[in-house]
Amino acid sequence: MMSSLNWVQALAEVEKSGQAWVMATVIGTKGSSPRESASKMVITSEHSFDTIGGGQLEYAVCQKARAILEAGDGPSHVLENFPLAAKTNQCCGGAVSVLLEYFPEPAAKITIFGMGHVATTLVNVLGEMPAKISWVDSRDNLAQDKQMIGTPSNVTPFLYQSMLEHIDRMSANEIALVMTHDHALDYQLVEALLDRKDCRFIGLIGSQTKAMRFKKRLASASFSKAEIDSVHSPVGIPEVAGKKPFEIAISIAGQIIQLTQSITDQPKKVTGLTWKEINGALVDAKGA
User: Fold this and answer.
1) What's 127's domain CATH number?
2) Together in a domain, 96 and 122
3) Domain XdhC Rossmann spans what residues (predicted)?
C-alpha cells in the first residue's frame, strides 16, 4: 500500500516502528524514463513511500525489494537494471538502474518500565543504538511530558493504567529494565517478566539490599535459583560507580551495550558492491 509520506519522512517512520525496510534509488537512466536519477522510495513488507515513477517499473522494484525482505539474510545491496520495454512492458523505451539497500530490523528490543530521572537519561543514551525501545509508565503527566518534549526516533512511549498491561505486548527475547517509582510495582513486574520465561535479560534498578529482599521473595514464590539469578540487580556495570541519575544511566547503558554486542548479535560483514558489479549494471543500462 502506498503512503502519502515522502521518503525522508518515511525514514523516521520505519526507524521508529523497528521494522525492516529497503531504500530504492534510481542511480542511472537511459532514454525516456519515468523519473530522473537520484529519485528514491522506501519499501517495507506492507507499504511503500514516495515513488520512482509508478507503473510496472515501480511494481517490479517493490516485488524485488519484498523478496529481499522476506529472505531476511540476503545481500545488503542489490543493483539491478530494468529495460523498460523488456522487463516492465512500459512504452518509455529507456532503461533504469536501481540500487536496492536492505536495512534489517534492529536485533535488540528493549522495554524500559518507568519514566523517572534515570530512565529519562538512559533513553537518550540508548536512543543512539540500533534498537527498538518501548518506554512504559502509568503516570499521565510524565508520559505526556515525554511525548511533548520528544524522544529519540527509535523510542515509543506507552501509557497504561498499570504498567503490568505492557507485559503481554512484549515479544520474545526482549531486554527488560525495571526502574519504576514504586518498589512494590517493581516486584510485580519482575514476577510477571519471569513468568513469561522468554526474556533475554531482566535488569532491576536498586541497591544491594533491595536486590537481596527481592531474591528472598522470589524464592518464597517458588521461582528456581536459575530464574532468580537471571534477574540482574543492581543492574549496570560495577566499574561505573555513583548515585547521580546520569552515572546510574551510563552504568546501565554500558551493560546493555555489552549485551547487544555479543557475538550472536553482530551483523554479518557488509562488503557492498564491487566496481565491476556497478559498472556492469550501468553498462547494461547504456546498452539497453
Assistant:
1) 3.40.50.720
2) no
3) 111-256
| pTM, 2 dp | 0.74
Whether residues 79 and 157 fall in one domain: no
The torsion angles phi and psi of 133, rounded to 5 degrees, stand at -120, 125
Residues 43, 118, single domain; the answer is: no
Q: What distance in Å separates the CA atoms of residue 161 and residue 98, rounded to the nearest whole number?
A: 48
The CB-based long-range contact list for 163-170 (8 Å cut-off, 24+ gap) reads: 163/113, 163/114, 163/136, 163/137, 163/138, 163/189, 164/188, 164/189, 164/192, 166/111, 166/113, 166/134, 166/136, 167/192, 167/193, 167/196, 169/134, 170/111, 170/134, 170/196, 170/199
CA atoms of 134 and 14, how far apart (whole Å):
15
Instruction: Please name the residue that has the C-alpha cell 539497453.
Output: 288
Conformational region of residue 126, where left means phi above 0, alpha means psi within -120 to 50, and beta covers everything else: alpha
* Separation between Cα atoms, residue 186 and residue 262, nearest integer Å: 27
pLDDT tens readout for residues 8-46: 999 888 877 778 999 999 998 887 787 888 999 999 999
- Give per-residue pLDDT as tens, 97-130: 999 999 988 878 999 999 999 999 999 999 988 8
